[in-house]
Amino acid sequence: MTTVTALPPDSLARAKPLVEPALKEAIAGLHPSLALMSGYAFGWCAADGTPVCAPGGKALRSAVALLVAQAAGGAARDAIPVAVAVELVHCFSLMHDDIMDGDELRRARPTVWKAFGSGPAVLAGDAMMALALQAAARTGVETACDELADSLTSLTRGQAEDLAFEARPFTGPAAVSVDEYLAMARDKTGALLGCAAAMGAAVAGAGGATVAAYRRFGNELGLAFQAVDDILGIWGDPRSTGKPVGGDLARGKKTLPVLEALTSGSAASTRLARLVQRPLTGGDLRRAATLVERAGGRRQTRHHARTHHQRALHALKSATPRPGPGDDLAELAAYLLHRTA
Amino acid sequence: MTTVTALPPDSLARAKPLVEPALKEAIAGLHPSLALMSGYAFGWCAADGTPVCAPGGKALRSAVALLVAQAAGGAARDAIPVAVAVELVHCFSLMHDDIMDGDELRRARPTVWKAFGSGPAVLAGDAMMALALQAAARTGVETACDELADSLTSLTRGQAEDLAFEARPFTGPAAVSVDEYLAMARDKTGALLGCAAAMGAAVAGAGGATVAAYRRFGNELGLAFQAVDDILGIWGDPRSTGKPVGGDLARGKKTLPVLEALTSGSAASTRLARLVQRPLTGGDLRRAATLVERAGGRRQTRHHARTHHQRALHALKSATPRPGPGDDLAELAAYLLHRTA
Hints:
Chains A, B: Belongs to the FPP/GGPP synthase family. Chains A, B: This is Polyprenyl synthetase family protein. Chains A, B: It holds the Pfam family polyprenyl_synt. Chains A, B: Keywords: Transferase. Two copies of one chain form a homodimer. The first copy, chain A, is mainly alpha-helical. Chain A has one domain: Orthogonal Bundle (Farnesyl Diphosphate Synthase), CATH 1.10.600. Chain A contains 16 helices and two strands. Chain A has helices spanning 10-28, 32-41, 60-71, 80-101, 112-116, 118-137, 144-166, 178-203, 208-235, 238-241, 247-250, 256-262, 267-275, 282-294, 297-318, 323-338, and strands spanning 105-106, 109-110. In chain A, helix 3 (60-71) packs across helix 8. Chain A is globular. The interface between A and B is large, with 42 and 42 residues.
């Protein structure tokens, strides 16, 4: 249960071909203009509809739903509608977040709003949300509507809080605290992974306590994932991450490494506090990354990642998973902690 | 059952105070920034949060849900979660449609995106969708998730088709046909009213055939409503409608009166076809309205409104409603046909 690897585990590679046909079938039922934008977002086609094979995301939420269903005593195929629902919600939230954040690139391609316009991208996101709901209704999970509603409410609250952070200072009494950041990340990243895990368990007929344990597993996994994401957002290799070097710093994002560094009280922290008062470019970006590291921001963020990873494993253990898929879930968690992309 | 009136019926006035407290409670649970935008959209506050009492819509979907619940043998209060869900979906779709259409005014106030920015308005719409889903999960209707998913899928398909119409010509082989327009309106306006009626019946414990009859009632009511809306969009009094004179013509919208006029083959139709090739302003707007009327566009649209109104009444009759609320539903339908605002 303690495999350490930077390579994507087999479970991710296995999830995609199981879920993709059902995803494609759902999307084929949309209005042609919406199906085109959705197919583009999943990396299945170019903006003009030409079939391509662009990187379309990790299928992480799918893998969690399928593996949890198996770990809870069910079959992976029974969780396909769950996987479809959570992948659609994830894709919908990326589409809309990219509009709000003004992000022009995702996985090294123009974002949907950049390629098709903001209005159409809003609508395509809405349509994927509607499809997600249809898929949820077909899971056979009695609480599917509730589960999806709760994760959507959390997603929007997390994004609202993330947007509100932009208007708040890095330092001083109104500064964003580490705890506030973690609460935001729990909503924005943890909730949907928790939903994927909980619905995967529910579809396998698990009882309330087991469903809750898997939800905690997904939730904590999401927090570990986000902490690692924040590290990669500053120190990641652009060739692996598909994102620009120091991208989060350049955009003035209040991420965990920066917030931790600013609370360390060290000399590096004081210098960093002065530096982040203005937009960062070129040499300042490198300087800021060095100061965040010297002030312990990277180490502390790594610590958060490990803590939530440990909590995820603890929740997983308490759900008493079947050994094979249980090991796969632990391997997936280890990969998310050690990944470089 | 054949009351003809241009005054809003009591049932609309009664629905609002029943549903609004539950709506307000749901919205109060949102992130403060999202609650503000939602409250603004419903006409409860100004953009800075100051309480106001601005016109916040007709509560038409609420009234239909509550009255159908009573007509099907239940109590109005049991349908409050249904009413909350459909009002939230309606408000969400207006918020997002206003972004896509670039509309700057709604009910004589700046639209949400105009007052708060497009990104925040996208998110506020998403949050209302999530709340709608939470409300639907609480209706006690087993098929609530399905019902809402289907109406959302229809809404997005209708809006996609409406946007696609903009890029198509008024005349020639690629012109938008009247049948295509009606299919779009069934998706964009009929589906949600059908959902409100169907869920109102389901919450009262009605059987499948009765639920389906009420869904047809709502659906046809929506089509009649849209036809009247199209007439008011050209010939309505701006003081009553809150919209500019000839607004739909000025925006080059392909509405039912124009499409009908263009297919009449009359001399007025030919002149209209030439006129609408370019954007209309000032005197051309008045001329276009006159030509649409002369070519029979207004009369034909009135005919569509009456046809769908009749079909709605027929569906209502087949559901064998309880007399009191059944009469109220017929009165509501008559009002929608004869309204001037």
